[in-house]
Write a structure and sequence with these properties.
The protein is mostly beta strands and 730 residues long.
């Protein structure tokens, strides 16, 4: 059968439900089993009696109902004695949960000066209890902290302003504590709280105010336009754009002398100079400055006006100013033919200070390097010190310096432009050099050249030139074209270049200005042979050389190049000759090794053709002994005559005899030499004496052993041993 039982969630642990089968006779033969939600964990059944018990406290908020199934079976056979029964356990709610807010702290804002009842924020608390069962989930709101400034609606939790005209400038932050209580707010209900931080936002309810009625500023009179004199600032209790303001000068006797600019970041009014100041003209200015809010809320017009004014007095300080010229610049015009010392103009300057010190004038010589002008230091009169020439310079830009005598370091400069006016002082001349020729077959009246002229002067009416011949010429004539050009024409037929190869024609050129200036230019006309069309074919040698001649500068350059080339050649030859000169013997210390090489080996004593052995046996047949050229002999010894050896004398005996003679001869120096003999004698006890092997030895050598070899090596001992001693002595 199906049965349903109810039990309370707050009941204590113990029997909560009893199940009993009709087949149960109380003899313990039946066994009750339980299955479903929470069976065996949350709910257990007594298998003998069928009592169902809860093992722990049950919370409806976790689960509101449980579905269980129970059955009675035979304990021995384990067969069911009745069909399975299903039942639902529903948990009844009790007020065991307090209301909670989603946030522990709320932040809200409301404009200052808001009317009573202005909504600030709505807070909502939730209760986990069953809202359909009693008042456990019915929440009522109340304010615990924040009165009398704010209130809360009990049913909705909407927080509203409770006082009118709350001023942010007096108090900006408020902390409100809201309570939510269940059971409809009755005694015994559970409650929760939250905190709401409320900020009053700013509105433009305060006008700007100057802290002072009068502000004093000072400025030197020499301050340039745009100089900041000082600042004014009004205070505004509001913040942000509600405190923004604009400054302006609304009245005063210096409205045209000064400006005021609003500094946005600092909300200050910067007063600047609009026009140059002068202490001697005015020393004190009074301005009325106004500050006005730029963002005004119409709701608070009744609190206005939202502007304020103050008086600014500006004192101009006296400064020792430099002289001031009567003009910013000067322009003087003068003719170029004036005499030296003529005054061309005067500059004027004064001391603007009340002391009115005398002024001294001077010229900046960097603007008049040629010192053409000068100035009178006392009255500023500018006069010429050198002649003027418009053709050289038409304009002169001078700089005049004015300084106070009492304070010469304080100076002022002014620009003076001098324009030189033209007079007719230059005669016209040929415009270019004319290379003119006439054909031998020319006819009378034939045009051979068109000429023009130039003039350095610049008359107002323009240039006008007249051309004529200096004297009547039988060969040529000039025809004025009246357009500043003229034509050169022939007056006869035929010319002969072998008779006259060149003609010189003086032409007079004059202008029409006053006074009239004229000059004579000479045309050089060559006589040339021409073809039928008048094209030049050849002229005389003299005529051809003239136009092709080199200038003096070119000839000088060519000569210099030739001279430089000659000098280079001479120096090169001298250096080459000097290199070829090498001394045979630089000093007597220059000892040479003489190597005599015999390419012919010879045939010994019997070979009388390869070597004349008779010469060795007969020293008398030898030429007179010649001195050595590679040394300077210290003493000139007369060579000794030795007796002739017999014809049958052995060569060995002959050589030994000669060696003995030379060993005892003090005048015979020990030369280093190499001789090849047909007879190879015994080895020398002194081994090799040649310096050819000296380059292979390392370090310095000791030659003292030479003194022990006998008189033949005394010279060597003196040369090598003495050298070492000299070296040691030095």
């Amino acid at each position: 059968s199906h049965s349903q039982r109810r039990m309370k969630s707050q009941s204590n642990r113990g029997r909560c439900l009893l199940l009993h089968s009709d087949q149960d006779k109380g003899d313990g033969s039946l066994k009750y089993i339980l299955s479903g939600d929470g069976a065996g964990t949350l709910f257990i059944i007594d298998e003998k009696t069928g009592d169902i018990h809860a093992t722990r406290r049950i919370d409806r908020e976790e689960k509101a109902f449980y579905t269980l199934r129970a059955q009675a079976i035979n304990r021995r056979t384990l067969r069911p004695v009745e069909p399975e029964s299903e039942f639902v356990i529903k948990i009844h709610d009790i007020n065991d949960n307090e209301p909670t807010f989603p946030e522990e702290i709320y932040t809200a804002s409301v404009p200052e000066m808001s009317v009573v009842g202005t909504s600030v924020l709505q807070v909502t608390a939730t209760d986990a209890d069953d809202p359909s069962y009693g008042n456990s989930a019915r929440v009522i709101y109340s304010i615990l902290q924040g009165q009398p400034y704010f209130s809360v609606e009990p049913e909705t939790g909407i927080i509203r302003t409770a006082l009118p005209n709350m001023n942010r400038e007096n108090r900006e932050q408020y902390q409100v504590v809201i309570q939510a209580k269940d059971m409809g707010g009755q005694m015994g209900g559970l409650s929760g709280t939250t905190t709401v931080n409320i900020t009053l936002t700013d509105v433009n309810d305060n006008p700007p105010r100057f802290p002072q009625n009068t502000i004093h500023l000072r400025i030197p009179e020499t301050s340039p336009v745009g100089t900041a004199i000082g600042s004014v600032k009004a205070t505004d209790a509001d913040t942000g754009k509600n405190a923004e303001m604009e400054y302006r000068i609304v009245d005063g006797d210096g409205t045209d002398m000064f400006d005021i600019v609003t500094q946005k970041d600092t909300q200050e009014g910067i007063i600047t100079v609009h026009k140059p100041l002068d202490y001697e003209t005015r020393r004190l200015y009074t301005l009325k400055v106004e500050a006005e809010n730029t963002h005004v809320d119409p709701r608070f017009y009744y609190l206005g006006p939202f502007k304020d004014t103050t008086i600014v007095k500006i004192s101009v300080e006296d400064v020792d100013e430099p002289p001031v010229f009567s003009r910013s610049s000067y322009l003087f015009e003068v003719h170029e033919d004036i005499e030296v010392g003529t005054i061309i103009g005067t500059v004027m300057a004064r001391d603007p200070d009340s002391a009115s010190s005398p002024i001294r004038f001077s010229l900046d010589r960097h603007t008049d390097l040629d010192r053409i002008f000068n100035i009178h230091s006392g009255n500023g009169s500018i006069y010429t010190s050198k002649p003027l020439d418009r053709e050289i310079s038409q304009w002169h830009n001078l700089s005049v310096i004015a300084a106070e005598i009492n304070n010469p370091k304080d100076t002022t400069r002014v620009s003076v432009s001098v324009r030189i006016l033209d007079i007719n002082d230059n005669a016209p001349q040929f415009a270019v050099f004319y290379d003119t020729f006439v054909c031998e077959n020319a006819r009378a009246g034939q045009l051979i050249q068109t000429i023009s002229a130039v003039d350095k002067d610049d008359p107002l009416g323009g240039q006008k030139f007249f051309f004529s011949l200096a004297a009547v010429n039988p060969n040529f004539t000039v025809q004025d074209n009246e357009d500043n050009t003229a034509r050169i024409l022939t007056r006869r037929n035929g010319f002969n270049r072998h008779e006259i190869s060149t003609y010189f024609l003086p032409v007079v050129i004059s202008d029409n200005d006053y006074p009239i200036q004229s000059s004579t230019g000479t045309l050089t006309i060559r006589v040339c042979t021409c073809d039928n069309r008048g094209n030049m074919q050849s002229c005389s040698a003299e005529a051809l050389l003239l136009p092709a001649g080199l200038s003096t500068g070119a000839l000088i350059a060519i000569l210099l190049c030739i001279i430089i080339l000659l000098v280079i050649v001479v120096l090169f030859g001298a250096l080459k000759r000097q290199r070829k000169k090498e001394p045979l013997i630089l000093s007597k210390e220059d000892i040479r090794d003489n190597i005599v090489s015999y390419n012919d080996e010879g045939g010994g004593e019997e070979d009388t053709q390869a070597f004349d052995i008779g010469t060795l046996r007969n020293p008398a047949a030898m030429e007179d002994k010649k001195l050595r050229r590679d040394i300077i002999p210290e003493t000139l010894f007369i060579p000794r005559r030795t007796p002739s050896a017999a014809n049958n004398t052995d060569v060995r005996d002959f050589i030994n005899q000669r060696l003995k003679e030379h060993d005892t001869d003090p005048s015979a120096p020990p030369y280093d030499s190499l001789a090849t003999y047909a007879y190879e004698g015994n080895d020398s006890i002194a081994e090799s004496l040649s310096s050819l092997e000296s380059g292979t030895t390392e370090g310095d050598q000791n030659y003292d052993y030479l003194r022990e070899w006998g008189p033949r090596f005394n010279k060597l001992a003196e040369m090598y041993g003495g050298g070492e001693s000299d070296k040691d002595t030095s």
